[in-house]
Amino acid sequence: MNIGLLNLEPKYKNLAIEKLRIYHQAKGDYVENYFALQQYEKVYASSIFTFSKKHIIPAGAICGGSGFNLTTELLPEIDEIKPHLNFGFTSRGCIRKCQFCIVPKKEGYVRPIGNLYDLWDGKTKLITLYDNNILALPQHFENICSEAIHYHITLDFNQGLDHRLLSPWIVGLLKSISHKEYHFAFDHPSYQASVERALALLRGANINRSIWYVLVGFDTTPKEDLERLNLLRKLGQRAFVQRYTRNRHKHFYQAIADWSGFHNLFATKTFEEFLELRSDRIRYREEINDSLLV
What we know:
- By secondary structure, the protein is an alpha/beta fold.
- It has two domains: 1-81; 84-291, Alpha-Beta Barrel (TIM Barrel).
- The protein is built from twelve helices and twelve strands.
- It has helices at 15-26, 76-79, 103-107, 138-150, 168-176, 192-204, 222-234, 250-261, 263-268, 271-277, 279-282, 285-291; strands at residues 2-7, 30-33, 42-46, 62-64, 87-88, 91-92, 111-112, 126-129, 154-157, 183-185, 211-216, 238-243.
- The strands form four sheets. It has a four-stranded parallel beta sheet, covered by helices on one side. A three-stranded parallel beta sheet has the order 5-8-9, with no helix packed on it.
- Strand 11, helix 7 and strand 12 (238-243) form a beta-alpha-beta unit.
- Helix 4 (138-150) runs parallel beside helix 5.
- The radius of gyration is 21 Å and the shape is globular.
- The chain starts with a strand and ends with a helix.
C-alpha cells in the first residue's frame, strides 16, 4: 500500500506523523511525505494550528490534530509506538486551566507517560521535550534530569516551563543539566511579581537569561503587551511574541513580534528606535500609534 503523510506545519516536527510512518513501514507499506502529483491509497494529514491552510489536503485524507479537533486520536497500537527520534513527551497534561490553552481539554491533568529512553536514539546529545508542564511533576522532573546527566544529554524544553513553580530546588536541577536556553511564559500583566520572583531565583543560580513567551491579543491591550516586553528587556531577557489573533491590531503586533524576534535589536533598541530602523514599519506608524491608545 502507498501511504502519503502530510504535515501541514512542516517547520514543526509532528509526532503523530512519525508514529504513522513507523507503523506503516513495519507493515511493509511504502511510506513517503505527501506529494500532490503522486497517487496514494491512503493519505494522513496532521495539523497543530487551526489557522494553517487546509486547502491542500486531498479528498478522502484522514485528518487529525488540534488544528482540526481535540477528539480524533491515533489507534492505540499506533499511539503507543516509541519513535526514538529525540523529541516528544515524557509527560502529558497540565495543572492550569488557562482560557486560551487547549492542553487541559486535549490532554487532561498532568501525568508522567515515559522517560528519556523512550525518545532517545542512543546517539544524539540533544533531546527536545514537548511536555506542557513538567515542573508540576517534581519527582518526574528530577528523574528526567538525572537521566540527562547520566547520558550527557542536552535538554531543550520547547514548550516552556511554568515560572510559578520554580523553587530553589527546581532551579538547582535546572542549573545541574546541560540545556538550551530555557523558555518560560509571561502570559498576563498580573504575573509581573511572579516573573520578577522567578528571575531572582534563576539569577541566584547564574541562569541570567531566558526566552519568555509573551501572549498578546487575548485579554490584554497593545499598551499592556508592550509594557511586558519592555519589562523583559529591562531585566535582560529575551522575548517571543505569541499572537492569539492575527486580525486585531495586525501591524502593531507584527511590529513587536519583529522587534522581539531580532534579539540583538531587542536588547539594544527601544520599540520606537526599532520602528525608525525599519522603513517597512514606518508607513504603518499612525496605525501602530493608534493601537497603543486602545
